[in-house]
Amino acid sequence: MRTATLQDVAKLAGVSTATASRVLSGHPATSVDARTRVAEAATELGFRPNAQARSLRKARTESIGVVVSDILNPFFAEIAHTAEQTAREAGLTIMLCNANESTEQQDRYIDLLLAHRADGIVIAPQGDGSGSLRDVLKLGVPLVFVDRTVDGVDVPSITSDNFGGIAQAVEHLVGLGHRRIGFIAGPQATSTGRDRLVAFRDAIEKHGADQDMALIYEGDFRVSSGVAGARHLLDLACPPTALLAADSLMTLGALHVCQDRAISIPDDMSIVGYDDIEAFRLLDPPITVVSHDPARTGELAVELLTKMLDGEKVESVVLDAQLVVRGSTGPASLRRDVPAPVPLETEAPPDVRGLPAPHLLAHAVHVDDVARLLS
């Protein structure tokens, strides 16, 4: 297939070649309409200025891209919020993009950011680093990863101590007498999902807890997989006495299932979540969590990116993760008569697409309230 040229972009956008060139070089003397049409045409045609031409550019656009995995996930919403604040204070504007846990959608947004001549990109990467992500690296556009990394890709990152956080959670549950601990893991296509699963298995082995592989369910960092994972684990012939979920949305899904089955927390089941969203502090009982700092993540990511734009060398940062013990964990239950499943109003597991994000809850809530939002 023939490589798209500047003339092709101009023709599709309905502008002159000179206008297309000005837009793609970040020249300020262009209209909003022209910039939009040229950017869309460049994305559709897969047009990217070559690396040599880009290296010759002297002026910066003073804009950066921020690509989050799922804007409905409170953790990433907080990263985006503080990234915008930090960028604004540095005199930068951000272009916020939602990959929606999709490599294809991520690639489309990266192409758009390149067409808009973003000076650099903060991103929670999807997939293995192929596609448009590789193109960014070839072009020399500064990148900072947040929350996740990509094997074999040397990019500075801001992550949390997944191993330390999970280890603290397992140690806490084992200390309460739990031996069968169910784990709703994140997707193994992500470094975060892989790290937290390895950390869980290591901690279980270290403390001599039950290593039954049936106690592990792979989710996808969404409410619906938390629901599916909790159902699977609670329906085992010998169900766990505690559940540990690898992120906040899957924790909400697990809570929904326990509420639906009239399983008392923590009397019948202990639950530990990952990410300390506001809703967890407002629930009754409040949820024990592994807490790390998304606000600091967003702030540091932009600070690292601005240093890179100024030609400075930067190092990756691993932020501490701390267990926050609240009311959702207690001694292992001696009950063995786990309530039978109660049919839900709808067969499809709930999700949060189109519903208010949990981090927007502004009043005290009970598990029932969250369940009604998700059902």
Automatic annotation (TrEMBL):
UniProtKB keywords: DNA-binding, Repressor, Transcription, Transcription regulation
Protein name as annotated: LacI family transcriptional regulator
Organism domain of life: Bacteria
Lineage, opening ranks: Bacteria, Bacillati, Actinomycetota, Actinomycetes, Micrococcales
Source organism of the structure: Sanguibacter hominis ATCC BAA-789
Keyword DNA-binding set for record: yes
UniProt cross-references to SMART domains, sorted A to Z: HTH_LACI (SM00354)
Gene3D superfamilies noted in UniProt: 3.40.50.2300, lambda repressor-like DNA-binding domains (1.10.260.40)
GO molecular function, one term: transcription cis-regulatory region binding
